[in-house]
Amino acid sequence: METYDVIIIGAGHNGLVCAGYLLKSGYSVLLLEKRSVVGGAATTEEAMPEEVPGFYFNLCAIDHEFIHLGPVVEELELTKFGLEYLYCDPTIFCPHPDGKYFLAHRSVEKTCAEIARYSQRDAQKYREYMDFWHRLIQAITPIFNAPPKSIIDILGNWGLLRLRKRSRLGRS
Ligand SMILES: Cc1cc2nc3c(=O)[nH]c(=O)nc-3n(C[C@H](O)[C@H](O)[C@H](O)COP(=O)(O)OP(=O)(O)OC[C@H]3O[C@@H](n4cnc5c(N)ncnc54)[C@H](O)[C@@H]3O)c2cc1C
Questions:
Q1: Does the beta carbon of 15 lie inside 6 Å of ligand 1?
Q2: What's the maximum distance between 2 C-alpha atoms anywhere in the chain?
Q3: d(CA 67, CA 123)
Q4: Where are the domains of the chain?
Q5: pTM tops 0.85, yes or no
Q6: 94 strand-pairing partners
Q7: Is the C-beta atom of 10 inside 6 A of ligand 1?
Q8: Distance between CA atoms of 163 and 149, rounded to whole angstroms?
Q9: I need a labelling partner for 168 at 20 to 30 A (CA). Which of 27, 45, 50, 153 fits?
Q10: Alpha-carbon distance 70 to 141, whole Å?
Q11: CATH code of domain 1-86
Q12: What's the 63 CA to ligand 1 centre distance in angstroms?
């Protein structure tokens, strides 16, 4: 009977990443997946082969933002093994029956210009909202790259004052 140092049940992205790091550290790993495809809720699959053959969908996890805050892609050399991110731009197209439409872009400035076609105030508010998110992401990034700790230690890592300042909505 074959034996393994570690058995992982479920080849979602957490199981896969965990297996990758364990293998890199020299452990033998058995990763068990009940479906015929790996990736769990983060897969890209031909979900409607009869209705739209050849079209691939992200079934659940469509926004892969936080993975880029950590070193996983580089450390596991995922691009070498075929990982490729396809970035759409425009990111959102909202057509309206009266012929008007709205396009969101990867660029905040371009998106604000688009919103301003309908409301200058909303464009300004969107800019403030994105600024808030940018500061909040910077504030929470340390947690992605730090070993798991108690919530008290995590808050200590962040610095409560720093976190409060960065997560304040609107310009300070
Ligand atoms: C609708 C939806 C939208 C989401 N959108 C986003 C998003 O935009 N961005 C984002 O970052 N996250 C998103 N998430 C969250 C993200 O999908 C999950 O956090 C992530 O998939 C969790 O990964 P995981 O490996 O822990 O579990 P899962 O991805 O759920 O993988 C678990 C795996 O275990 C397998 N399994 C279960 N039981 C067994 C068993 N007994 N034996 C063998 N295999 C088993 C399953 O088949 C599956 O492959 C979304 C989730 C949902 C549901």
A1: yes
A2: 69
A3: 28
A4: 1-86, 87-172
A5: no
A6: 102
A7: yes
A8: 18
A9: 153
A10: 8
A11: 3.50.50.60
A12: 13
